[in-house]
């Protein structure tokens, strides 16, 4: 989604942050019932590596092996008054769509459309029109409707027998954690903030014993639920703890959740998609209402993301009977500035002794 802070907030009344619903909810399906059939090389996934909602789609695409059939466009993490732009590409234009701003694909779909411009978004390459910006449904469809194009050994991220439990877990995580950090960060009154912040930590504390006894949120393999929690946890200490004032404790201070997050980060398809430079620059520079100086902090130290987690002792296997994804495709690697550096052997040994 667009992370711009103001949607649903009143400058004067103490109203809670409300995330705008996706305006374009067409689905790309195996049978093409909405007019958009699954097809290799037809669509382009537009994301920001800064955005947690878009990061879900990036991780799913990689885990499922859709890199060769669903191309990827990465926007500049710092928006201007026309929202997401392709400032990272030569000439400031997406090389496939030929546009400078994602808004142009929105306009081709519906001139003068209401609402903002959000990521993730899927664009139909032949027409240049936006297909969907439904961030909640998109990754579920990648897991269930795009199966004919999945790589051999791809995991089942939304297994039918576990869907009721996955849906219930994801609903709680969305309300209190994924969106809860935003409700705290964009709160315009003390009472609104305290309610949202308390909700974030209450849910995290409820998840802690669950993840103390099992490696993954639902079942013994990775599912969509883990992806959705991870994209908030990986941003927690870098931006939500300070920038959004979710500061009762840091992720690194919760032994169980910190180990769980590191386990996922070190799993191919998760940490290799995370760009901490994009994350920090977006939140601290774009949300001028929260951070008027737009100064981007130097910390936190990211080396801990590569330290041992020992979560394998709980059993479970990330990909079940399948296999991990291969190397990150050329051109999609996270630049060195955005990676969590690996600790030196001396530092890693000290961490293990602690």
Automatic annotation (TrEMBL):
- Enzyme Commission number, as recorded: 1.8.5.7
User: Which stretches are tagged as biased composition: Low complexity?
Assistant: 329-338
Q: Domain of life of the organism in this record?
A: Bacteria
- The signal sequence is none
Q: What residues does the GST C-terminal domain cover?
A: 156-286
What would you give as a GO molecular function for this chain, any one? Answer: oxidoreductase activity
InterPro entries registered for this protein in UniProt:
Glutathione-S-Trfase_C-like (IPR010987), Glutathione-S-Trfase_C_sf (IPR036282), Glutathione_S-Trfase (IPR040079), GST_Omega-like_C (IPR047047), GST_Omega/GSH (IPR016639), Thioredoxin-like_sf (IPR036249)
**Region annotated Disordered, chain positions:** 315-354
Per UniProt, the keywords (alphabetical) are: Oxidoreductase
Q: Which PANTHER family match?
A: GLUTATHIONE S-TRANSFERASE OMEGA-LIKE 1-RELATED, GLUTATHIONYL-HYDROQUINONE REDUCTASE
Q: What is this protein called?
A: Glutathione S-transferase
Species of the source: Streptomyces achromogenes
């Amino acid at each position: 989604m667009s992370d711009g802070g103001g949607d649903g907030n009143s400058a004067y009344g103490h109203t809670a942050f409300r995330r705008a619903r996706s305006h374009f909810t067409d689905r790309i399906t195996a049978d093409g019932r909405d007019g958009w059939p699954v097809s290799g090389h037809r669509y382009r996934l537009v994301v920001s590596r800064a955005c947690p909602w878009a990061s879900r789609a990036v991780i799913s695409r990689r885990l499922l092996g859709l890199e060769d059939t669903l191309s990827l466009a990465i926007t500049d993490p710092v928006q201007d008054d026309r929202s997401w732009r392709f400032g990272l590409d030569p000439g400031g234009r997406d090389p496939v769509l030929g546009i400078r701003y994602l808004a142009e694909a929105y306009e081709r779909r519906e001139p003068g459309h209401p609402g903002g411009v959000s990521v993730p978004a899927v664009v139909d390459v032949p027409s240049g029109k936006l297909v969907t910006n439904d961030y909640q449904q998109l990754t579920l469809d990648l897991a269930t409707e795009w199966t004919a194009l999945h790589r051999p050994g791809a995991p089942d991220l939304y297994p039918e027998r576990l869907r009721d439990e996955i849906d219930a877990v994801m609903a709680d995580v969305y309300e209190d954690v994924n969106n809860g950090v935003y409700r705290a960060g964009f709160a315009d009154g003390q009472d609104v903030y305290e309610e949202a912040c308390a909700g974030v930590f209450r849910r995290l504390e409820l998840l802690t014993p669950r993840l103390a006894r099992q490696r993954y949120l639902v079942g013994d393999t990775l599912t969509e639920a883990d992806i959705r929690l991870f994209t908030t946890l990986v941003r927690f200490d870098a931006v939500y703890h300070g920038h959004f004032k979710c500061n009762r404790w840091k992720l690194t201070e919760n032994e169980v959740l910190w180990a769980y997050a590191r386990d996922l980060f070190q799993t191919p398809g998760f940490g290799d998609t995370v760009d901490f430079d994009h994350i920090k620059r977006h939140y601290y520079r774009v949300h001028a209402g929260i951070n008027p100086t737009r100064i981007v902090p130097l910390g936190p130290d990211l080396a801990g993301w590569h330290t041992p987690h020992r979560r394998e002792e709980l059993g479970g296997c990330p990909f079940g009977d399948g296999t991990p994804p291969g190397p990150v495709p050329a051109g999609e690697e996270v630049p060195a500035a955005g990676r969590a550096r690996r600790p030196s052997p001396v530092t890693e040994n000290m961490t293990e002794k602690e």
